[in-house]
User: What shape does this take?
Amino acid sequence: MILRQFLHHDPVGISYLFGCGGKATGAVVDPVGDIRPYLQAAANAGMKINYVIDTHVHADHISTGRALAEATGAPYVLSAEAGVGFPFKGVRDGDVLPLGNVTAKVMHTPGHTPEHICILVTDHTRGEEPWFVLSGHTLMVGDLGRTELATSAEEGAKQLFHSARRLKELPDDVEVLAGAYAGSVCGRRLSGKPWSTIGFEKRHNQAFMIADEAEFIRFMVSEIPPAPPEAAKIRAANSGVAAAA
Assistant: This one.
């Protein structure tokens, strides 16, 4: 298993390169900014980038996913439910992306956005249990992501409740590798530590701990962080609908 984490500060976010070193196959998730660090990291690891994945259509930064996919010849992967204006590889809940001895299983986890996906990763040279989940802006260290683009905040929170319940079913030792950390506008109580485990978040993440749906919805809509000032334009640009201003 090869895993590289890229921490971004402006905007705040986290990208990942992971895959199978033995078979030289990898994927990049949620790339931000200059694509050269991902190309260099893959080259240093002796890996080809076989997939470029965005966990959702972002509204807090311009994604460089399509640019990286074009530079590497890899398919650009989004949820099949993403409403975008360009060709992409659409994936659905339960789909598996093969990466040599590593597999990446898609989990549809709506709530932050309707099309949001998480990626559950297993290294079959180590065992058949999942090792970590790339959880995007659904489950972050210390909070769950604020809801976007639902018919109402309550509906988005309801979707997020059921997505969180699915993630709680993962083994406690599965690592949580989120798409943001402290300073991001996508959560309220985010930690500066950019990784955790399902078990720790079950015990210490206030939103993730709530088991009652009605209580969860009340909690999530009571203090929704404001969207980034240019959120609509950024999401439109990432959807291929309009250029960012």
